[in-house]
Each structure stands twice: as structure tokens, then as C-alpha cells.
Specification:
The protein is an alpha/beta fold and about 325 residues long. It has one domain: Alpha/Beta hydrolase fold, catalytic domain (Rossmann fold, 3-Layer(aba) Sandwich), CATH 3.40.50. The chain has 10 helices and 8 strands. Strands 1-2-4-3-5-6-7-8 form an 8-stranded mixed β-sheet, with helices on both faces. A hairpin with a 2-residue loop joins strand 1 and strand 2.
């Protein structure tokens, strides 16, 4: 993937510009204590009046690496053997929950007809690396085994996530991790973090690292410092999927990677898509113009957001 392919060709959509202005009116995450940032993020994302309607939303528990985890199940309708999507939210491995990403899970369920289970994995700094990928692996294994009991097709289990959650979804399908058994039918990664060693480096960070369009280099450095404080951890493939051997990546399921034109993580996603292609993985890569980091979860979706969910639905039908 040539760097020039990442150059935006459309302006940031006005609906997303308003969101950037609202975010910049608040303190930056690195300027407050982690517990304050967590509460601030929950408040920022709360907007129940604009949540898409699904038929069933229920609280469940799933297995984690150190005990049960809270999760939320979304059922878009009454249908036999629907696909199952195991979803991990974003938030830099420090922030977020199924509440902050409620809209994402609902949209996924509605667009794809899948049962979606959004998992509250353990967060840093209370639980630094590798707690989160360990939880992701355990949750995926548990839900894959329970798919039929949840009313889903056990042959059509997908794993998905956005940002940090996308990194966890990737980690959960890396070989040699856990005792999951067979791979899911597919992996869906929205703007993943794939190289912890290169924060602040490369075209996307140079273009957008100042935070004027959203996620900043300072944010990413703060997240990394709380999540993986030991630099030796950054080359672990569960932390930086780009560090995985090509031979190991060859065993990954069909993968959809979606990146945003105005995002410091655009290059992370593009490079990982190229690495998967080199490994022989069936990979679909979509670089969405006119949008920034977090665009799949904004309250009022611009065309790029709608198109991204439509692309997920079409891709799932094609691969599984």
C-alpha cells in the first residue's frame, strides 16, 4: 500500500467536523487522570435518544481469562441460525464499554442480521497488557462454543472490533493463543492499532497527529503508556499484529479491514492489510474517504458510515 494511497481525496464531512469541535472543547485525555478520562468518555458517548432500535437487548456473562466478563447481546429479529458477531469496543485499551459502543453494536446487528455480543474486557491501567487480549481470546472461545445455544449458526461466527477493539479481535485469532479450536468465519477490523512501536511515525501521524481531526499522537502515546508500559511488550503480536510472522498470519480467517481517511491509524490498517495479503489471507481493504477515527459510531451517520456497515453486511454474505 503506497503512502500516497492514504491521502484524503474528500473533505471531512460536516457532521464529523462538529464532533471534532465538541471533543476539542473538553480536556484532552492525557491532561486528566485515567479515572476522569474514563468517566468523561462514557459521558461523551451517551446519547440514548439516538440509538437504533433492535428487537432484543440483554445482559449476559461470558468467560474471561480471569473470571466472568459482562457482555451485552443484541438480537435484531427472530430468525433461525443467524450469524454471531463477537464485538470488542475501542477506547485505547483504557476507555470504553458496551455502553460507549452501544450504537456500533446495534448498527452491526441491524445491517447484518447477526446476533451481536459486545464484551466488556478488562481495561488498563488497572489491568495492563496482556489482560485485554487474554480476555478477548477467552470470550471468543466461550461464545463460539455457545453459538448454537444463543440461536446462532456455529459455522457463521465472526469476530469484530474498532480501534483497540479491532486489535483485540486480531489478537484473538492469532495462532497459538488459547484453546479455541477452529477459527471463526471471518474477522472485521475497523481502524485497528497494528504497530505500537511506530506511534507518531509515518504519513498518517504526520498528517493528523496534532489532533485537529480527532485522535492525536498524544492520545496514542498516553494509551500506550497505560496499557503496555514495558517497551518489550510492543513487539508482541498481540500488542502489535504487524510484528507477527507471515507464516503465522497465513492461518487467519477471511478479513475485512476498514480505515478512515482522516485518522492517525490509517497507515496501521493499510500496512496490516498488505501484510495479510502477502501471507495469502483472503483480505478485503476499504479506505473510507471524508471520515475520521470513530466514524462508525457517530450519532448522526454521514454517508461514509452508512456505506461501511453496508460493506460489512455484503462481505459477511460473501465469505460466510
Amino acid at each position: 500500500m503506497a503512502n500516497s494511497d492514504l491521502t484524503p481525496t474528500e473533505p471531512l464531512h460536516p457532521l464529523l467536523v462538529e464532533g471534532v469541535k465538541a471533543r476539542r472543547a473538553r480536556p484532552a485525555f492525557p491532561d486528566v487522570a485515567p479515572d476522569v478520562a474514563k468517566a468523561m468518555f462514557e459521558e461523551m458517548q451517551a446519547n440514548p435518544s439516538r440509538m437504533p432500535e433492535v428487537v432484543v437487548v440483554e445482559a449476559i456473562e461470558v468467560a474471561g481469562a480471569a473470571g466472568p466478563l459482562h457482555a451485552r447481546l443484541y438480537r435484531p429479529g427472530v430468525s433461525a441460525a443467524a450469524p454471531l458477531i463477537v464485538y470488542f469496543h475501542g477506547g485505547g485499551f483504557v476507555l470504553g464499554s458496551y455502553d460507549t459502543h452501544d450504537r456500533n453494536a446495534r448498527r452491526l446487528a441491524i445491517a447484518t442480521g447477526a446476533i451481536v455480543v459486545s464484551v466488556n474486557y478488562r481495561l488498563a491501567p488497572e489491568h495492563p497488557f496482556p489482560a485485554a487480549p487474554d480476555d478477548a481470546d477467552a470470550a471468543l472461545a466461550d461464545l463460539s462454543a455457545r453459538a448454537e445455544g444463543l440461536g446462532a449458526d456455529p459455522d457463521r461466527v465472526f469476530v469484530a472490533g474498532d480501534s483497540a477493539g479491532a486489535t483485540l479481535a486480531i489478537a484473538a485469532v492469532l495462532p497459538g493463543i488459547g484453546e479455541r479450536g477452529r477459527q471463526p468465519a471471518g474477522l472485521i477490523a475497523f481502524y485497528p492499532v497494528t504497530d505500537m512501536t511506530a506511534i507518531g511515525v509515518g504519513e498518517s501521524y504526520r498528517a493528523f497527529g496534532d489532533g485537529n481531526v480527532g485522535l492525536s499522537t498524544a492520545d496514542m502515546l498516553w494509551f500506550r503508556g497505560l496499557y503496555a508500559p514495558d517497551p518489550d511488550q510492543w513487539n508482541d503480536p498481540r500488542c502489535s499484529p504487524l510484528a507477527a510472522d507471515v507464516a503465522d498470519l497465513a492461518g487467519l480467517p477471511p478479513t475485512l479491514i476498514v480505515t478512515a481517511a482522516y485518522d492517525v491509524l490509517a497507515q496501521d490498517g493499510a500496512l496490516f492489510a498488505a501484510r495479510l495479503a502477502t501471507a495469502g489471507v483472503t483480505v478485503t481493504y476499504r479506505h473510507v474517504q471524508g471520515v475520521n477515527h470513530g466514524f462508525i459510531g457517530v450519532p448522526t451517520p454521514p454517508p461514509g458510515t452508512i456505506a461501511a456497515y453496508e460493506a460489512v453486511a455484503e462481505w459477511m454474505e460473501r465469505v460466510g
